[in-house]
Amino acid sequence: MTRWLEGDQIEQDVAISSRIRVARNIKDYIFPLYLSLEDSDKLTNDVLHTVKEEFRGNNFRFYRISDLTQTERLAYVEEHLISPGLIQKIDKSSFLVRDDEKATIMINEEDHIRIQTLIPGLNLSEAWELCSEIDDKLESRLNFAYDSELGYLTACPTNVGTGLRASVMVHLPCVTMTGNINALIESLRKVGLTVRGIYGEGTEAIGNLYQISNQTTLGDTEEELIDKLNKIIYQVVTKERNTRKYLKEKKGIEIEDKVYRSYGILKNSRLMSSQEAMKHLSNVKLAYDMGFIANKGLKDIFKLMVDIKPAKIQMSSNMELTKEEEYKIRAQIIRDYLSDMEG
Amino acid sequence: MTRWLEGDQIEQDVAISSRIRVARNIKDYIFPLYLSLEDSDKLTNDVLHTVKEEFRGNNFRFYRISDLTQTERLAYVEEHLISPGLIQKIDKSSFLVRDDEKATIMINEEDHIRIQTLIPGLNLSEAWELCSEIDDKLESRLNFAYDSELGYLTACPTNVGTGLRASVMVHLPCVTMTGNINALIESLRKVGLTVRGIYGEGTEAIGNLYQISNQTTLGDTEEELIDKLNKIIYQVVTKERNTRKYLKEKKGIEIEDKVYRSYGILKNSRLMSSQEAMKHLSNVKLAYDMGFIANKGLKDIFKLMVDIKPAKIQMSSNMELTKEEEYKIRAQIIRDYLSDMEG
Fold first, then answer.
1. What's the pLDDT at B202?
2. Which of A259, A270, A330 to probe the B interface (max B CBs under 10 A)?
3. Rounded to two decimals, what is the model's pTM?
4. Beta carbons of B145 and B22 less than 8 angstroms apart
5. A343 CA to chain B: closest CA distance, Å?
6. Whole-angstrom Cα distance, residue B319 to residue A197?
7. Most buried residue, A203, A273, B15, B110, by CB count within 10 Å?
8. So what's the pLDDT on residue A93?
9. Which residues of chain A have pLDDT under 70?
10. Cα–chain-centroid distance for residue B291?
11. What share of chain A is helix, strand, coil (3-state, %, to 5)?
């Protein structure tokens, strides 16, 4: 799993992943919230038929949310393949995921169709290309609700227009450490972007991971929105890099101490909560990106961050795990991963 | 340095060291506090002459406190070779330390002469034998103040009689962890023993190390005092061992997690305070004694506890160290020690 993280990555010392999603609705059906189960089945079949016809070369796996266990649902959310919103209403929603996991088509989330593409590193253009291609293919057979003045119509007015949300997940441990993160978030908000911590509440970011995305979907073309976000992300990347350089110069030994302690804890602990693991893995990623620990295996530490999420751990067992068992398995997975890397 | 820790050790999973000291005064001189510098020199020469005559085979090194730097003085205290009291009045006090460091003769501490013997592990009888032998030799040439009713006379009434203090340093991480330490201290007090944390304030023990010693010096013979202390220490040792067994059974994974984390931090940190080091080294000693980490080199971890004390670290450098430099050197010493052990 978490196959979408494979491949070349651009600016991966700061940018973890680039994501595009577009919201689309089919004219002949009412929005998902009020859609009957019968119509939902009909709509789902329409989408499945389209995918079957249009993507003969590509393999998409299809899952109905109601067919999955709650643990499986959460694991897909943890892998960023589907949105938390999709598993709220289990009777109508389903999704298709491409074999390389870089594209997902969600059916009956807030909108009838949400196409999501995920590319590792900073690569919004590739994500957009892929998303746009899938969108075009679906639109060739499905009658999308579109207004010539407003653009694509969506269940929530905030998505009307392009229906597009572009976002980049960034790792900002040093900007966070120096306390400059709040000013950064504020300045990003002023240019119309949203910043939220990944997995955390509000802006509190677990693992120093932040998702930066466009707020508005109306008024600009898709390319303009993406280009604007891309430029700003490069500024954020530069800010984090400069802060790392500054800290390495001014507080090198303190940072080195901090990241090596995290490394030592991860390599030795026998019980590990998800939240604590994220904190230490963030430090270990920083250790690699700042050149403190040269181990090549640390390049892909974000994969490990995904693999040690609660539902993913639960999936490795046939029995309902207690917290202690979950913590024990997580600590073991991390130790094995880090010792394999060294071996 | 810290040579006194070498040799066979009894009950060393809990008992670190056994110490005997006797207080003696010479009839012809007033107590050290009011002793003139001239008389102090005379008394010192009397002792030196006696040692020279009586211990022809054994080498004692002689140090005047006034000839030592403050860092050197503190390092001798950290090694437990001299008492903190000896370096308070630098003009009159001096000491002789035997080459194997198992015996020290302090001159003009609170009393004219304090003989101290230190044996690793639980071995009060050997400590007493050695102390008694030195005492006899000194007494053969020096006229000790002695009252046929009271016994040896001392500057402080609490030492009158045998002038003897016997103490054992014990490592009680599990009794401390379970919170039973306060009840234990209380019960030891009731049978006339004193318990204090080593290096800590009051009963707060840094590194879970406690010194248990006799309170009274009057009424019993030396052998009775020592025998009584010895029996009680065995009870304390048993209590700590039983608590370890209990915790291993009931909370094995939590203890394992705790001690391995300390091990990981010690093997990786780049900055380390003395107090934090003691906490983790205590856990690592426990890890060895409970069989979690089999590394033989951990058997002598208490030596490392002594070697990373502030003055000992300072002595490794020619310049006055900043706190950060001290912390850096300490972290390095610990990493080197632990990686040497593994290699």
1. 52
2. A270
3. 0.89
4. no
5. 16
6. 46
7. B15
8. 96
9. 1, 199-204, 343
10. 26
11. 50, 15, 30
Cβ contact A270–B257 (<8 Å)? yes
Measured between alpha carbons, how far is residue B67 from residues A61, A213, B87, B92, B103 in Å?
Answer: 83, 70, 11, 11, 21
> Do the Cβ atoms of A17 and A168 come closer than 8 Å?
yes
User: Would the ipTM clear 0.90, i.e. be above it?
Assistant: no
- Is there a contact between A301 and A285 (Cβ–Cβ < 8 Å)? yes
Contact A127, A18 (CB under 8 A): yes
B67-120 pLDDT, tens digit each: 999 999 999 999 999 999 999 888 999 999 999 999 999 999 999 999 999 999
Q: Which of A143, A90, A96, A121 has its CA nearest to residue A237?
A: A121
A101-150 pLDDT, tens digit each: 999 999 999 999 999 999 999 999 999 999 999 999 999 999 999 999 99
Q: Indicate yes or no: CB of A253 within 8 angstroms of CB of B269.
A: no
How many angstroms separate the CA atoms of B212 and B184, rounded? 11
* Contact flag B328-A253 (C-beta cutoff 8 Å): yes
Give CA–CA dist B33/B109, Å, rounded. 9
* Cα-Cα-Cα-Cα dihedral sign, residues A190, A192, A198, A203: positive
Q: Give B-chain residues touching A331 at CB under 8 angstroms.
A: 257
User: What pLDDT sits at residue B4?
Assistant: 74
DSSP string, B83-96: -GGGGTSTTT-EEE
Closest residue of chain B to A260, computed from CA coordinates: B268
* Interchain proximity B268–A256, CB inside 8 Å: no
Angstrom CA distances, A262 to A99, A208, A298, A307, A343, stand at 35, 14, 13, 18, 19
Q: Is the pLDDT of residue B181 over 60?
A: yes
CB contact under 8 A, B261 and A263: no
| Contact residues of B toward A, CB < 8 A | 253-254, 256-257, 260-261, 263-271, 324, 328, 331
Q: Which of B254, B256, B271 sits opposite A257 (nearest CB)?
A: B271
Contact criterion met (CB below 8 Å) for A113 and A83:
no
The predicted pLDDT at position A343 comes to 57
**Which has the higher per-residue pLDDT, B342 or A278?**
A278
Question: Which residues of chain B make contact with A267, given a CB cutoff of 8 A?
Answer: 264, 268
The shortest C-alpha distance from B262 to chain A (Å) reads 8
A253 CB neighbours in chain B (<8 A) are 270-271, 324, 328
